[in-house]
């Protein structure tokens, strides 16, 4: 292959179509959730350890802004990752693969995630 | 043909399937926990521990824990092979992810059976 072909890898000049945006966000949220595992495990461990631990978790998630914000962020990431995963499985079966339907599926995932994110926020605050 | 020795099941097709099966387990477990939290608003310590003391729930949690280990490994392995090109850094990243998932699995077993 000729090396003189023009290459544009300047991300700031590339407009991502919606399915590409959901794809990269699927990865980004996956990495976020991996980093966030420490919080999930810490909370899970503390809540089961003893009654005092359970109450600590409860007060953290009802009163501490930082803890609530981390929980909101991780649950939003989880919502997106789960929805995008369901879309991925549906596409594995050969659906939503045309330009129009793929765009629609991406819109459904993105808007459902915004709704879930708001609901998580309402639930936490 | 196997071209990478660090993938999960030594073949891309096997990893592809494992990633989807573990995703289903993790999705079901997430929905299960969300439904439990929503149907138990003023949750207390007794309700929470009695849920996790039941054998079926423990089996489900353990299944989700093992699925999490495999799912994270395959996902982050894919990410590392796409974005981290120098062999040393990529290998170091994979070692950190592998060690982290091993620690989480042991921690998970301990917290599920230790209370």
Question: Would you mind describing this structure in some detail?
Answer:
The complex is a heterodimer of chains A (125) and B (115). Chain A is mainly alpha-helical and 125 residues long. Chain A is built from four helices and no strands. Chain A has a single domain, classed as Fumarate reductase/succinate dehydrogenase, transmembrane subunit (3 helical TM bundles of succinate and fumarate reductases), CATH 1.20.1300.10. In chain A, α1 runs antiparallel to α2 and α1 packs across α3. Chain B is 81% helix and 0% strand. Chain B contains four helices and no strands. Chain B starts with 11 loop residues before the first helix and ends with a helix. Chains A and B meet through α1, α2 and α3 of A and α1, α2, α3 and α4 of B.
Number of strands of chain A: 0
Structural class of chain B: mainly alpha
CATH classification class of chain B: Mainly Alpha
Low-confidence stretches of chain B: none
Q: In angstroms, what is the radius of gyration of chain B? A: 17 Å
Q: Tell me the radius of gyration of chain A.
A: 19 Å
| Mean of residue pLDDT values of chain A | 93
Write the layout of secondary structure elements.
The complex is a heterodimer of chains A (125) and B (115).
Chain A: H1 18-49, H2 51-63, H3 65-92, H4 99-124
Helix pairs in contact in A: 1-2, 1-3, 1-4, 2-3, 3-4
Chain B: H1 12-39, H2 45-53, H3 55-83, H4 87-113
Helix pairs in contact in B: 1-3, 3-4
What's a concise summary of this model?
The complex is a heterodimer of chains A (125) and B (115). Chain A is built from four helices and no strands.
What descriptive keywords fit this protein?
heterodimer; A: 125 residues; mainly alpha; 4 helices; B: mainly alpha; 3 helical TM bundles of succinate and fumarate reductases; 81% helix; elongated
């Amino acid at each position: 292959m000729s090396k003189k072909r023009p290459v544009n890898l300047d991300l700031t000049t590339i407009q991502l179509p919606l399915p590409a945006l959901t794809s990269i966000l699927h990865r980004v949220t996956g990495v976020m959730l991996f980093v966030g595992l420490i919080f999930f495990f810490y909370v899970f461990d503390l809540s089961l350890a003893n009654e005092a631990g359970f109450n600590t978790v409860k007060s953290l998630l009802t009163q501490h802004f930082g803890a609530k914000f981390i929980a909101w962020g991780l649950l939003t990431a989880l919502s997106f990752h789960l929805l995008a995963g369901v879309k991925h499985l549906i596409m594995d079966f050969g659906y939503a693969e045309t330009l129009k339907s793929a765009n629609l599926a991406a819109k459904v995932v993105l808007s459902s995630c915004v709704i879930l994110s708001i609901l998580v926020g309402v639930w936490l605050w | 043909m196997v071209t990478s020795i660090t993938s999960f099941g030594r073949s891309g097709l096997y990893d592809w399937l494992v990633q989807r099966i573990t995703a289903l387990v993790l999705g079901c477990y997430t929905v299960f926990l969300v439904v439990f939290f929503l149907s138990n608003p003023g949750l207390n310590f007794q309700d929470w521990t009695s849920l996790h003391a039941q054998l079926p729930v423990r089996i489900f949690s353990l299944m989700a824990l093992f699925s999490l280990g495999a799912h994270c490994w395959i996902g982050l392995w894919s990410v590392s092979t796409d974005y981290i090109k120098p062999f040393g850094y990529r290998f170091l990243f994979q070692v950190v992810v592998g060690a982290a998932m091993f620690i989480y699995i042991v921690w998970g077993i301990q917290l599920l059976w230790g209370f």
